[in-house]
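Interim report, section 4.2 (structural modelling).
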Amino acid sequence: MIAKKIKDAKATVGSERMSNKMAQIYDVAATLICAKGYDATSVSDIADAMNLTKAGLYHYIDGKQNLLFSVMNFALETLEEDVIEPARDEPDAMRRLELIVRNHGLIIMRGSSPMTILMDEMGGLTETQQEEIQKCKLAYYAVVRDTLKELKKEDKLNDFNPSTAAHSLIGMILYLSRWYRREGKMSDEQVVEELLKIVRSGFVKV
Amino acid sequence: MIAKKIKDAKATVGSERMSNKMAQIYDVAATLICAKGYDATSVSDIADAMNLTKAGLYHYIDGKQNLLFSVMNFALETLEEDVIEPARDEPDAMRRLELIVRNHGLIIMRGSSPMTILMDEMGGLTETQQEEIQKCKLAYYAVVRDTLKELKKEDKLNDFNPSTAAHSLIGMILYLSRWYRREGKMSDEQVVEELLKIVRSGFVKV
DNA sequence: AATGACCTACCGAATAGTTGGTAAAATCAA
DNA sequence: TTGATTTTACCAACTATTCGGTAGGTCATT
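Predicted structure of the assembly:
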């Protein structure tokens, strides 16, 4: 009880409350940008959705472009924590591949708007920012490709060019955001199972 | 008779020149929009690229939005002529599937900017226009799905949900525009072969 | 008194689209 | 064929609006 009070008090004192608000801003911005596109979303739109004026919102952010950059970095953190980290901890290449498909697929189907923005709104960034994000994307792509290469070494992969196969696999996963609807017939778990079937029989030697 | 022929010829020359110019406008617009995005491409940008003033360009188009719509319809015509028509003429489901992957893949890798726009810039359209384009996209998707269903009936398809498989396949193909570079190591034909390998071993029973 | 969390009111730049023209080409009448 | 008329293919200049961003203020909390 006392502990809680202290925690609450501390929360009030600045940084946590601040970062709560920042998180909320990122979330609201991501939702809007994901729905309407970066250029079509004005700073005022975001401010309105936050029940702030534009100038009020500018108290928290330092420009529209940097806000987009932050949202994208948030998406990359999610990707790192929920997909790459678990994959790194899995020594078996086959299970690692399945983990990647499952975790990345679920993130997208559960509607992570930052993740969608990460793919669609690169043009809104500075060239420097683009390069930084691109570097992270390539690192992710490398994880997938290396896993496929490892499978090939174990003779568990069909005779594919691992690079093309990795891109194709990622394309398949990312495209989920364009067609999967939560109101539809299939649950996200069911779709993951279907994807895994394709991966198992398509990429992996039988 | 001769007079009519001459008139027709002249009419043809006139309207052909016109539609040549229109085609050129669509092409230039598509290239710019594909490179920078719809919102970030101003009508003046397109006019400049056409060596016209904005007012001069407006002589040919009736608004930015309708121009985008026309470009997208142009992409759909390409899809119809170069992918769907050839597929319709192929009775064998297996070969039909291969034709789709090959033809659609090649269009994208050879840099059809209208095709990329078709996927990325739906938000720039009226709702009515969006619905019209979406209808065509769904028709294409249905062709792929029905082909997969047919293969399943012939017992040549692994036990997939044809709907999910169709989406995944299309996602794989469309993603080509995001990673394939003509300056890279692989030729478009080579990539097509890789995709077909994935399709053959992944979607089709061995 | 100082700081954080806002707001009102504004600015400069850019943009989609229009108006009112001109010069040349195409069409038509004699 | 020629002269008159209409149409085509443009352009310079302008309007109205929107947008990203800022200056300078208020007010409550600390």
